[in-house]
Design brief:
The complex is a heterodimer of chains A (129) and B (137). Chain A contains 3 helices and 2 strands, in the order αβαβα. Chain A has a two-stranded antiparallel ribbon. In chain A, helix 1 packs antiparallel against helix 3. Chain A is elongated, with a radius of gyration of 19 Å. Chain B has one domain. Helix content of chain B is 45%, strand content 21%. In chain B, strands 1-2 form a two-stranded antiparallel sheet. A two-stranded antiparallel ribbon of chain B has the order 3-4. In chain B, a hairpin with a 4-residue loop joins strand 1 and strand 2. Classes of the chains: A mainly alpha (129), B alpha+beta (137). Chains A and B meet through helix 1 and helix 3 of A and helix 1, strand 1, strand 2 and helix 2 of B.
């Protein structure tokens, strides 16, 4: 079932994008907080690559492992932006950077939901609806 | 808590902190010529604000809050104005240690940060709407 795989992938990416949106919001909100270090999530690519082969289930009652990546979405301190560097207050947030990241998130999320919608319509077409 | 709702809360806390900062700046500007009313009395002292980062345990989100509203310990400005009720024996009046240029810069920065938070709320809301729109088929 390829299409089921697609829905799982899409929902994983939506989850990753939501977490990234939360991290970007945190950075923007803390742009004036002394000693705050800007953060970012691990790239989606590495989240996917961290996926592991699930263990075989010999009984239907066994728990199924996630097939696509575990809960490997990590939030870490972002590399210090060279142009802005560490401010006098010990803060490393570059608001312009955060806003550009935020635009990227919006674009990817829109693409994600549009694709899911298209595939959903295809499945409905297959059902003759 | 789902990340998008947490993002809304975080941006909200950021806006509240910036709004408090705007209030402090307004107080400073409004009181920039407030002197004492007895001879040699101290005038209004400039207020300062600092933010800190606080972990909200319920959602695991890093919220912003106002750590402290303090006072600027800088020296007062002295002016010669013998007719003022606050003038001392030499006719000198102490004026608040408020520098209008500094306050205006602070005002602009608080304004920009508020707008950035607002933009971030708008975006989180759009993402939630896009998700709900999936149900429309």
């Amino acid at each position: 079932m390829q299409s089921i795989q697609l829905f799982e992938l899409a929902s994983k990416q939506a989850e990753w994008l939501s977490i990234r949106q939360q991290v970007v919001s945190t950075n923007i909100a803390n742009a004036n907080t002394p000693k705050f270090r800007a953060q970012d999530v691990t790239p989606f690519q590495s989240v996917l690559e961290s996926s592991y082969t699930p263990m075989a289930r010999t009984n239907a009652a066994h728990f199924a492992g996630d097939t696509l990546g575990g809960d490997k979405i990590e939030v870490k301190d972002e590399e210090v932006n060279n142009e802005i560097g560490v401010q006098e207050s010990g803060n490393t947030v570059a608001v312009a950077n955060e806003l550009s990241k935020s635009g990227e998130i919006k674009r990817q999320y829109d693409l994600n939901t549009q694709l899911v919608k298209a595939f959903h319509n295809m499945m409905l077409t297959a059902l003759g609806k | 808590m789902d990340p998008l709702s947490a993002a809304l809360k975080i941006s909200g806390s950021g806006m509240e902190a910036e709004a408090t900062r705007l209030r402090v700046v307004s107080e400073n500007i409004a009181n920039s010529r407030t002197t004492g009313d007895t001879p040699g009395a101290d005038p209004y002292r400039r207020k300062t604000i600092t933010f800190s980062n606080e972990l909200d345990r319920a959602s695991g989100a890093k919220m912003v809050n106002v750590k402290k509203i303090g006072v600027d310990k800088g020296n007062f400005i002295e002016e010669h104005d013998p007719s003022s009720p606050a003038a001392d024996a030499n006719g000198m009046v102490k004026l608040p240690n408020v520098n209008m240029l500094v306050e205006m810069a602070d005002l602009r920065e608080a304004n920009r940060s508020y707008e950035a938070n607002l933009q971030s709320i708008r975006q989180s809301r759009d993402l939630i709407s896009a998700t709900i729109d999936l149900l429309k088929g």
